[in-house]
Amino acid sequence: MSDASLSALAAQLAAKQVSSRELTQQYLDRITALNPVLNAFITVDADKTLTEAAAADALIAKGKAGPLTGVPIAHKDIFCTDGWLTTCGSKMLHNFIAPYDAHVIQRFKAAGMPSLGKTNMDEFAMGSSNETSYFGAVKNPWNTAYVPGGSSGGAAACVAARMAPAATGTDTGGSIRQPAALCGITGLKPTYGLVSRFGMIAFASSLDQAGPMAPSAEDCALLLNVMTGFDPNDSTSLEREKEDYARDLDKPLTGLRVGLPREFFAEGLNNEVATAVEAAVTELKKLGATTVEISLANSKLAIPVYYVLAPAEASSNLSRFDGVRYGYRAPEYANLDDMYCKTRAQGFGAEVKRRILIGAYVLSHGYYDAYYLQAQKIRRLIANDFTEAFKTCDVILGPTAPGTAFKLGEKSDNPVEMYLNDLYTIPANLAGLPGMSLPCGFDSQGLPIGLQLVGNYFSEAKMLNVAHQYQCVTDWHARAPEGLK
Amino acid sequence: MSLSPDDVKRIARLARIEIDDSQALASQSQLNSIFDLIATMQAVDTQGIAPMAHAQEVYQRLRADSVTETDHHAAFQAIAPAVENGLYLVPKVIE
Fold first, then answer.
1. Interface subset of A 345-364, CB within 8 angstroms of B
2. In contact, A77 and A154? CB cutoff 8 Å
3. pLDDT digit string (tens) for A321-372?
4. CATH number of A6-248, picked from 3.40.50.150, 3.90.1150.10, 3.90.1300.10, 3.40.220.10
5. What is the ipTM, given to two decimal places?
């Protein structure tokens, strides 16, 4: 088992101390050993993976390696991957072999990073526990009776269990940050528009954004360098100068103004989480930061707003799954309409259907203004709160989730209670701001606690700087679950 | 507001999802608890606030009206449930 950072692995490859094939095989062996316990991967294909590793070795031999060439990575099963089963955690796509690569996959292939396989996830990324996957729940590597969070639960679990040195995730309402927090790793949701959504199976298109998940902030910076960039195939992709997200990692934090939103430390926050986050603030102060209390007064409305907007967009996006062109088709039906209705009834799981129904309702005649338009107006108020807050601070800090990991099955029958898990993560999605989660301690049961940073638009390098400096003086991110063989 | 089982069936019909009476009844209470949560936003005064549809103020890019894609139909139809002569097969719609 390797605890080496991505830059250390890349250095070993460059120095020819290990080949990509050898390194990749070590991770494949660990996946073989642990996946029956954790269920973090839906698809593993060692032959394909090792072919990619051999190609990376050839690039290294020719002196054509990039910064991460030969380092393997796991991909969330939401990214279309040419020739690989791409299920999005759904029966609807249980047989879907993608005929092309998502832009994110293209980027990692071009960087020479072999794919270790496709990670498990909540069905169509709708969930906060990974229990809605058609392929079964993922287990938290810190305690297998607990959920890993979601929807990128397989990605977070495989990184925490060191089955992969890094993984890709996507975040619509917290799906990178919340599982990162619950599994004790670092994960970053970039500013909306920085990473192309091309080939990323759509949930709520105005909120969906892909990002990196890895043990440390430094790892995430290197991965972000690979993932970001303009893509004409995504109409919301932003045309910006290429940035090096690792450029500010080593800057001192002297003079940094950390905003603490009083609403994020209010009722509903677990005491142990609050204590760990406050201890992290003390660490940052020792590093030269100052704190300022801020208010995100409308953030309490983020969950109702999200559960109008995201289902509305999802009901439209998921109308493409009709059993005609790809994926599941019901075996028996009376006519075309019946084929649609039976295919969708059988192909979608309960949570996905629930959200499609909410979306269809809030968009239906007579309800549009009261729900959809009202939600869009409050979305503006939530975004305005952030704009105001960033006049007095450089980065906003709070908990990632109101508690630590909960037990499998504990909240699966109560959608509203499940939704409340994303209380602190959703506001950044609604505003389109970058957010990240990093480990800041453990609760009395030994479960990880996550700290959230939210930055202003395009301030990823600053956030990574803060996170890296914190990780230079703490070792929460370096700890891995014990007892996993 | 509160949805009746018939409302649930009407929405499911709009969404083309088959649902029977017992499923509609089971969905009803969960949907209503979600709509209770959503209802909290009705109290907010949003007069004069412009709706925010998107995180970035960006506009649709235009490109030259020329062919840029190559033909992928064989690859795309290879994964379809039913295909014949390059066409997707569905139950007969027109008598």
1. 345, 348, 353-354, 356-362, 364
2. yes
3. 999 999 999 999 999 999 999 999 999 999 999 999 999 999 998 889 999 9
4. 3.90.1300.10
5. 0.95
